[in-house]
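Hey, I was hoping to borrow your eyes for a little while. I've been puzzling over a protein and I'd love to understand its fold better. The fold is given in discrete form, as structure tokens running alongside the sequence. I'd be grateful if you could look everything over and explain what you see. No rush at all, and the record is pasted right below.
>
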Amino acid sequence: MKPPPIQPGRRRTATRWSGWAVAGVLLLLHTAAPVATEAVDLEAEFAKGTTVFGIQVGGGVQNNIENHLTISDISFVNFTPRLSYLPFEPFGSGWYRSALEPGLEGWFQFYLSPRRATAQGLKLALRYHLIGIGPLVPYIEVIAGAGGTNLRVMEINSNFTFVLEAGAGLSLFVAPGVSLNAGYRLQHVSNGKTSTPNRGFNSHTGVLGVNLFFH
């Protein structure tokens, strides 16, 4: 059966919605930063031995950075609970004061188009925080995991899938031990050549989260 063509109008709508959502979240964080009512000691929040539990929600749309003639126009929402442990004290000085946060993420992804499907699994995550800049804490992260899926599209058609992500974002402590985060991730999904087809697909995604720090 001939694959369906790209639907540019639909893609422009999804991309426009994603852009407005990210801009709105960044504006919210920027507005909230100056009015935080409680001083937060970032050294204490990211101290060695801290456990972090977080809940994130997000979504994304397939991109076409590889310039394929046809794509499936995949879109989805996801839910990713996080559990992290900080094994090291913060390091560096000045603006480069940093903290490492290794942990685990659950992965629950619900595909909306081109048809309803799901994926679920477990991911390893590493987040690098820059805590010397101020109340807004930038971070970069890499995530890798695997799971099961019933998504059947031209890019992947298997019960097993890998998921790789890289991204960046901002965290804001709204109270001692409580932070909000918003970020961007580039997501890659494929089955690692365990079956065919295995073209895989890439997506632009966004995440929103709340995190609790236990010392």
